Amino acid sequence: MSTLYSRDQSPDSQGSPIIYPPKDGTFDELVSSDGSVRPHWHGLLNTFSGLTQDARRHAHETAARMLHDDRMTYLARQDNQQAARPWQLDLFPLLISQAEWRQLEAGLIQRAHLLNHILNDLYGPQQLIKNGTLPPAVVFGNPQFLRPCHGIPVQGGTYLHFLAVDLARSPDGQWWVLRDRTEAPTGAGFALENRTIVSRALPNVFTQTPVQQLSAFFQTFSDHVLQFAQHDDPLAVVLSPGPQNATYFEHAYLARALGYPVVEGADLTVRDNRLFLKTVEGLKPVDLVLRRIYSDLCDPLELNTESVSGVPGLMQAIRAGQVTMVNALGSGLVDSEVLLSFLPGVCQYFFHEGLKIPSVATWWCGQPNEQSLVLDRLDELMIRRVLSSPSTAPQRHISSFGTDLSQQSKEQLRRAIIRRGHEYVGREIVSPSTAPFWSNQESLKPVPMTLRMYITASPHGYTVMPGGLTRVSVQSDPRGHWHEPGDFSKDTWILRERHEHVPNIIPHVPHTLHLRRGGRDLPSRTADNFFWFGRYLERAEGAIRVLRSFVERLSGASELGADPEMLHRLVSLLVVQEHLAQRRARRVLIGGARAVERELRTILFDPDSPDGLAKILMNVRLTADRVRERLSTDTWKILMELANVPQEWRRTKGQSIDDTIRLLSRMIQHLAALNGMVMENMTRSYAWRFLEMGRRLERVRHLSKLVRHLTTRGSPEATGALNLLLELADSYITYRTRYKSEANLGAVLDLLLADETNPRSVIFQLVTFETHMEMLPHDRSQARLPPALQTSTRLCTELRLADMVRLSAMNEKSGVRSHLERLIRQLEQGVQKISDEVMHLYFNHSMPKRV
Fold first, then answer.
1. Closest to 729 in 3D by CA, of 713, 707, 708
2. Contact between 442 and 16 (Cβ < 8 Å)
3. Nearest to 830 by CA among 786, 789, 792, 773
4. Contacts of 171 (CB under 8 A, 6+ apart)
5. Model-level pTM?
6. Mean of the pLDDT values across residues 74-78?
7. pLDDT in tens, 500-518
8. 362-364 and 424-427 as β-strands: parallel, antiparallel, unpaired?
9. DSSP at 663
10. Omega into 245 within 30° of 0, i.e. cis?
């Protein structure tokens, strides 16, 4: 086994040389045919080999932590269900030399212009069909040719604003195009995140290597699309299918990078041939749509009538020239692999030259000679059914590899090709070159590699991103689709000349910038999510405080574990807080303290418990996912730390009482830190106000339940229920400081219900809610208050006029404090009414009702 270094070039003694070539193959990307290392790899290999063991371990730990903290995932189908799969990143980058980059760049720019020319022709004069360059069936038989889009002009003649190309290099060094991605190309956000992680995990390696930067590419894209707006302050949105989409992480990531809100079809509407965004202030005109859904799903009126992701009437707004789609609807026509075999001729027709980067050999079975060739070579080719809608045909069901098929399957495929040959293509199976994979902290090994590169339109033509998304098939079939279980990604480093100047400031197209404050263009769906994000956060805090008190009282130190009355009160409190069903609570109480402890462990530690803490935290996480592009990095990290605490429970041996209390206390600390970030870092926009309104209403709901359960019956002073109530309301110190005596029911009720100086009291929450509500848009010309404000004002008045002595008095006949019971019932019903009124006023067209 030889090392990279000769004896007089050995690295620092603390370092460990990276070994090559491996026993199981060769590095096509790294090693030339004569066995020598390609010149542009020398610098990186020398730097890598000089890393100490600790530095390599730290790099892997940093990358793993960043991937985990950013919750960088994609959704993949497994056992007929979608599941979040963590993104896998190999820190060792793919290097492309400056000379090779110039060849790739020229070929990709040519290809982008070619595909855009084809779309202009096929949705316009259709000369390619008239002169016989393209068979009519290739176009009119393709479900991605959208007839309603024919004849609709696009601004600047630009159908393709952003596209991607999948490439593979054969072991002899020749690059081949595997697939063009023009419909809604994915992966650019992942590529940008890969760069961020690698540059932070390996800062010295990155700075010592002359790598071209990515940021200017995304600024070029943003400047390009904004120039199509019809005024100086355009509204651009990212149209996404929603969080259930496989690459929703990227949608949110790009939206944050570009400053665009993520919306779904239900957030948009068309009025008078104009596309509008539904916001809390009303309808706002939309100028640009960066769509992440298939074209045929965009308008259920004129395209796919079964679509629930689109906007009815969108085609009419496009015809009227009132909105720019990125990419234009129907762009998926040139995404189809059926065109690959015709591109050389089309390139000659438009540009009088050949393709600078050839496509992998492809034969369309709609032609007799080509069909015969494919049938003769069925054992050698990949067969793909291409003339089917991508929105309805799962990719893994449209590809067949002849070498993998049984004789019966081959015969079935042969008959299908003969019967409907125009739907199929045969394609050479490329054996991709191998790239170095950093399999552990010691060595590299060769694995098959493919590369996706990105191209954006610009004021001067097209620009290629100086990087890309490299896929290495470590434990997966390189012939398969991206995001298979064994796939890893790599950062792609395009080298520059060392003397080449790297600008500190990203150049951009100058345009008038109107100063703005307040963040008022808040989509109604986003407002709804922030409202419920606040509610779920407060619900989580209330649940954690209840469970921590429960655990403390079951511990041996408090000596309350054997107190039947206290056990009954605590179990019934779990029922009131909806952590335990009434029937199950009765069975638990029969079993005594041990049964209660077992049930508590289920609520705390079982991720599948329908009423457990895991479900509450899941609601927090899922709602946070929906507003991720509007949360700061620090806020997101705190949320992820909060969500990850339950994983520590599973790692805690025996899950002792002390460990449980410690972890629950940590969760409260995370929530306190999160509340601090909300108060100190969020601008006082509508988003912040809806989050705060949700928190305040949920706190009233939670505290009302506690007061009802612990004080409306019996003698709470004697049983210790008042001390428990003060503890759960985080007001024990306030009470002791103020009264310096044992808990008194009247004083406790006053502190928790009607004291406007206590930030945990019910009236404080309602007054704060009113302050936020007053700042939201509503019809101020009406003489009456909005219904939500009417209800909150009525509740505040009841609390201000409440007589605590009267509320503390018990009805001798019923044994219930009926006046207190009535007040609490009013609070609970009032909070539900306020929540419904807020949802009706601002969210009614957005999302289904939540609880």
1. 707
2. yes
3. 792
4. 28, 431, 433, 434
5. 0.81
6. 59
7. 655 544 444 455 555 665 5
8. antiparallel
9. H
10. no
